[in-house]
Amino acid sequence: MMTEKNLILKKITSVVLALVMSVLGAVFSPQPVKSRAADVDFNEYAERIIILVNEARAEEGLKPVYAVPYLNDLANIRARELVEFWNHKRPDGSKFSTVIDQNLAPFWYAAENIAAGLSTPEDTFEQWRNSPKHWAAILNPDITHMGAAVTYEVNSTYKWYWQQLFIESAKSEPFEGQYIPERYKVVPSCCGDLNGDDSVSVFDYILLMQYITDTDDNVYLNDLQLESADCLQDGSITLADAVILQNYILGSNGSLPVKLF
Questions:
Q1: What is the pTM of this model?
Q2: 35-40: long-range contacts, CB 8 A cutoff, minimum separation 24
Q3: Separation between Cα atoms, residue 40 and residue 157, nearest integer Å
Q4: Are the C-beta atoms of 36 and 119 separated by less than 8 Å?
Q5: 84, 88, 83: which is closest to 98 by C-alpha?
Q6: pLDDT for residue 201 is more than 70
């Protein structure tokens, strides 16, 4: 027989759960369907391309390349040119490297990779990985700096256009603003801490639900966040993880992660 204390606790839990779900219902109410490109942060996509380049180089024991804001701007120019003229030459017939002002970015060597049609950095990078010439450019031990860009044009042949611009610098001093992008800008402190604020709360639950219910890949979680979201530690992120996280926040689960077997 359920004790009076348990009945009271059950009622309190039900009220809290109803309140949480009512808030989430407002957050996740259906919205008008948008184009996949509408919510994309193109700069963030380009940075992910550079991160993937350096991760691939690290696997081969090569030094990372620096991202340079100026080269990113030039890569964007080239990406836009590709919409109208799909070629390693520019629309005026000149070589792609003429986009670089040697006074601003002196170089000994330059190369570019281009791709089109796919809508994510990871899928596009796999395109390059599977092409020997493109992959050789990525793993060239002599390149030191790069820029990357992506653009989208709905009324075009391929819609998505990607560009990597590599150089071997001819200057001894660093380029202005050069940096090496980091994948893990959000670092969870424990299981369930998806937003990296050192606590597990309803905000983490909301982020997890956004990720699970997102059908257009607009909600991105890095590898550490995905590991933190896997509350069942079964290698996948599903509604079951959301239920476990919700129960933990409400006090039904004593700890995270929860192992079923």
A1: 0.66
A2: 35/154, 36/119, 36/216, 36/217, 36/218, 37/119, 37/152, 37/154, 37/159, 37/160, 39/216, 39/218, 40/152, 40/218
A3: 20
A4: yes
A5: 88
A6: yes
